Amino acid sequence: MSQEDFFDEMDEMCMKLLAEMGKNKAVLLLAIDKEFDYEITFEYSDMTKWQIALTDGGTGIPVI
User: Fold this and answer.
1) Where is pLDDT greater, at 51 or 40?
2) Distance (Å) of CA 23 to CA 18, 28, 30, 35, 43
3) pTM of the prediction?
């Protein structure tokens, strides 16, 4: 599966999940450690809550 196909499929699944939850938009933060333990955090109000950027001195790591 190509990277583009993967993200297209993930977008579709996420839209279905949001619809099931009665939401029309959201962002999520997926944090995975080296043991592949993970945590998923959802945000429904502030779509800029976890901006991830290297511009303006940013580290590229979101602050939770």
Assistant:
1) 40
2) 5, 13, 19, 32, 11
3) 0.58
